[in-house]
Amino acid sequence: MKILFTFKIKTSFKQQLKEKYPNVDFIYTTNIDEVALGDIEVIVTDGGDLKSGHVEKATELKWVMVAAVGVDTLPIEALQARKILVTNSHGVHKMPLAESVLAHLLSLERGLPGIYKREAEKNWELDSLPGEVNHSTALIVGTGAIGGEIGRLLQAFHVRTIGCNRSGHASPHMNETIPLDDILEELPQVDYVISILPSTPQTRWIYQPEHFRAMKETAVFMNVGRGDAVKEQYVLDALKHNEIRHAVLDFFETEPLPKDSPFWELPNCTVSPHMSSLSDQYIERSLDIMDINLEKWVAGDQDLINQVDLAKGY
């Protein structure tokens, strides 16, 4: 059995795999085009390097393990046509992304950006009194593992959490849950809108200008999901017209964000360079999931964890 890794991993993990699976031929590369793919059974990738042409060449390919959560960059149709099993690293983003959300909200409410600015200016005087996260209301759009962890942390600060998912089914750490179709009615009641939606046909460009007009003028909009959930121009217009207080944006339509983008200059916008889910523990967590599945695979068990429904996109 040949298994191809298309991203760098630590030498210690390579050694661990070699010792645990002596009959498996592990191949490592950072350029998939340099590898003969004909007899590769498993490909472990961290994202968009796998193309339909690679799937076509990999005639023995049976499983693609994605060391990330999003699978929208994969050649979905080619994988579906071959009925190739795809798993992801669902759950690895939960802790760092939830911490990022909480950090941004606490920073904004407790006035940390102003503290740093006044420190640089050696200015003692406050511009305005800081606020509190305590007893606010957050709408968490997307109630999977990440949304649940965000809800858990916010509830520790006495925040009322409203989850939002397709059907409105009850979700952990949410005081209530609403269906996606009811989001417009809920927006005028909430202080924070936290979007962690994946990129799917159903969620693409889901936020329209009327959504921002429905939000409180004091609301914070945070997109730590995919960039194609909202058009950048809609957020820009909302910020420029003070329809919302602040936006924290971790994803953009074009990345890296161009230097001439007005987002860089807006005082009521925080540009986060696609880093909210990053952590020095990220790869280790992904490889732990891969190891669980690999142990099953080698034993002939294809009931792997984190299987992706390619038709749904998650």
From TrEMBL:
<feature type="domain" description="D-isomer specific 2-hydroxyacid dehydrogenase catalytic">
    <location>
        <begin position="5"/>
        <end position="300"/>
    </location>
</feature>
<comment type="similarity">
    <text>Belongs to the D-isomer specific 2-hydroxyacid dehydrogenase family.</text>
</comment>
<keyword id="KW-0560">Oxidoreductase</keyword>
<dbReference type="Pfam" id="PF00389">
    <property type="entry name" value="2-Hacid_dh"/>
</dbReference>
<dbReference type="Pfam" id="PF02826">
    <property type="entry name" value="2-Hacid_dh_C"/>
</dbReference>
<dbReference type="InterPro" id="IPR036291">
    <property type="entry name" value="NAD(P)-bd_dom_sf"/>
</dbReference>
<feature type="domain" description="D-isomer specific 2-hydroxyacid dehydrogenase NAD-binding">
    <location>
        <begin position="102"/>
        <end position="276"/>
    </location>
</feature>
<dbReference type="InterPro" id="IPR006139">
    <property type="entry name" value="D-isomer_2_OHA_DH_cat_dom"/>
</dbReference>
<protein>
    <submittedName>
        <fullName>3-phosphoglycerate dehydrogenase</fullName>
    </submittedName>
</protein>
<keyword id="KW-0520">NAD</keyword>
<dbReference type="InterPro" id="IPR006140">
    <property type="entry name" value="D-isomer_DH_NAD-bd"/>
</dbReference>
